[in-house]
Amino acid sequence: MRQQKTKPKLFTVLTLLIAGAAALGHIGATLAFTGPSTPIKSSLQPELNRYFLGPLDQGWSLFAPGPYSQDEYFTMRACLSSAEICAGGSEKGAQFSEWRDITAEEMESRAGNMFANREYKQSKSIHGRLWSAASRLSADSRDLIANPYVLGNPVFGVELDSSKAREKYSASELSNLRSYKRIEDTAIGFASLYAIEQWGGASMVEIKLRREPVIPFAQRGDDGATTKSRETYIGWRDTKEFSQEVVSVWS
């Protein structure tokens, strides 16, 4: 007696097609996220960050084999005088705030709260992305970001979307510069909002990103064990302007 072949149901076929498309999409996104910096990757970076960093900012590392090996801190200070006086420095009577460790303040606010939302880890998220973007710059470009660029002067001497920038930099280097500048603008905006909250506003801010390696487990019984911190310095920048609606929501 001959057996009749059962044709796959339409629902099964659709399920397999959707699962296959999702798998291919994830593999493609993974290759783009982990691959070298290109103009295409730069254009997709915001969407890739949202996908891979996830709603909890864990960066798809829930099952990572090892714990974090360093502490990260976003620190900043502000110039509270007018932009013209701040540009002249302390010799012109500029008033500066003290250095503030925003990450430490956020950590104190969320102590003991294992379900703390993004409000309590904004500086840490910005730190990781800005540090990585700065590390991809050339040595000369990393030196440039430590300089002050105020009163409207562009950070790298030229507007990065201009023809002069395309003449000055290669395509790959220009892509890295643009990626860095987007994240730096985010960091400056974050510091500007913090300055509004703390001091009622500022005309300029500067930022230091600090990483402090954790003492290796094998040396934690040694009272004399020490680690050496590293810093990425972002020189003085003009603050960003925000509407009152944005300030009220952020506060």
Secondary-structure blueprint:
Blueprint: H1 10-34, H2 39-53, E1 70-79, H3 83-88, E2 100-101, H4 102-109, H5 122-135, H6 139-145, H7 163-168, H8 171-199, E3 204-213, E4 230-238, H9 244-250
Antiparallel strand pairs: 1-2, 1-3, 3-4
Can you tell me about this structure?
There is one protein chain. By secondary structure, the protein is α+β, with helices and mostly antiparallel strands. It contains nine helices and four strands; from the N terminus they run ααβαβαααααββα. It has a four-stranded antiparallel β-sheet with strand order 2-1-3-4. α1 packs across α2 and α5 runs antiparallel to α8. It is globular and about 80 Å long. About 2% of the residues have low confidence.
The percentage helix is 40-55%
Query: End-to-end distance, in Å?
Result: 77 Å
Which quaternary structure do these chains form? single chain
Shape: globular
Strand order of the largest sheet: 2-1-3-4
Strand content: 5-15%
Biggest sheet features: 4 strands, antiparallel
Low-confidence parts: 62-66
Overall mean pLDDT stands at 83
SSE arrangement, N to C = HHEHEHHHHHEEH
Give the number of helices: 9
Summing up helix and strand content along with how strands pair, one would put the structural category as alpha+beta
Rg over alpha carbons: 23 Å
Number of strands: 4
